[in-house]
What does this fold into?
Amino acid sequence: MNLTNKTSNAWRGIGRICGLVISILIASDSANLRAQTLPEPAWDQLPRWRGFNLLEKFHLDWSNGPFLESDFQMISDLGFNFVRLPMDYRVWIQNGDWNRFDEKTFREIDQAIAWGKKYSIHVCINFHRAPGFTVASPPEKTNLWTDPVTQQVCAKHWGEFARRYQNVSNRNLSFNLFNEPADIDESAYVAVVKKIADAIRQHDPKRLIICDGMQWGQQPVAGLRDLHVAQATRGYAPIQITHYRANWMKGSDQFPIPTWPRIVADGTLYSPTKNDIPINARGPLQITSHWTEETPLRLRVGTVSSDNTLVVRADGRTVFEKSFAPGPGDGEWRSSEYSKQWQSYKAIYNRSYETTIPAGTRSVEIANTKGDWLSLTEIGIGHRNAKGYQRETIVRFRNRWASPPSSLTYHTIKPSDDSSRPHFTGAEQEDRQWLWDEGVAAWVDASQSGTGVLVGEFGCYHRTPHDVTLAWMEDNLANWQRAGIGWALWNLRGSFGVLDSERSDVKYERYRGHKLDRKMLNLLQRY
It folds into this structure.
């Protein structure tokens, strides 16, 4: 090799070294810039964090692995800055002894916090299962809210986390004490929170503490203000939409197919002789309209208690009559159960029955003329659009005990008008404003009174239709943006998430080895 080549190679080597040094400096500066972008939180005014729950240590029996750096990197690259780590305390104890801690598991949690710093993501540690309390299965053997020994153990656990992370800034780390307390007295809840907060502050006096509201995180707790802790709520209403056919929730397979926004009407039909029900609740379900042509009507029957007769009348003339007689063995029903108390059978049908509304009809009545009670889960009224396709307008029913059946108006359209759709009015409407009134307004009041607020979990299970999920999510996200409240989707990867959700009605994109729900991601990024 001649001298010229040697010189050229030397300069190239120096260039590569300089380039490497510059890259390291740029990476270091980028990391510092990311760290500086995380806002400083306070218990009385939380930032509007946006992010996800990560479930690596969610449950001892089926979700107990190390956290993944790739999750933190993706979350950061996609523009989010928050993760909540809902964890099961049993993963960090040794051999079921809740007084002995496992250092290996703690190091895995250390790593998650370090990745949060690296990628400018705030990490919120949550005891989803705390000693003596969980909403998951199996239940705890002791009661955190009433047992002093369990309270001491729980305080010891949180005290260990406080000691371990006392030098980590509140910009990077917060503690979310318990997950969705319910069915306890507020004073008992506040008393336990005070014990745990005191244990944390013995090691880390300024640590940011967040407490879930009562009634599964839905209700602000005024008594917590004096403890100087922020509060977290949930975004799971209405449960019939968010947990449709969720395999861990009993009865969710009986929820009607979700729509959003939705009309909420009452559809339990009581017989005229059911004297334990107020007389005004024993009438028919009524629908008024003007049907100019014969129109299909479909009734979906849910539960039937004892023998009943379902009748449909059009302007007083019977157009459909069906007797139901639940009993043992096989039948039209999906399942049937005998009640010793009432000495009768109650059966779940989940079956549709069809009839026709005659042309010229102005009023339809759907009644239970004889027996005990039965529930309708939905009705569908057929119509043709401008292209002649047969469609159906559906209203789905809730079934509140002793509530009078609804009175509805069905608005038809001209067959040539395909720009609008037939629709029902006359019942309660669940929409963006309803979500605000039911789930946000009280938390805005808490925020304005000086309490930091966060939506710790929200989302729809993957069996909810995708278009319904997105419409419902947008109304929630718009409300939280208006209120200045941050949020965390349950989850990043999995049945509620933007990655690998296994929805059957999504066209996925490939993204770093995952299946990405681009529409959901775009929606989250807009808010």
About this structure: Confidence is low (pLDDT under 50) at residues 1-35.
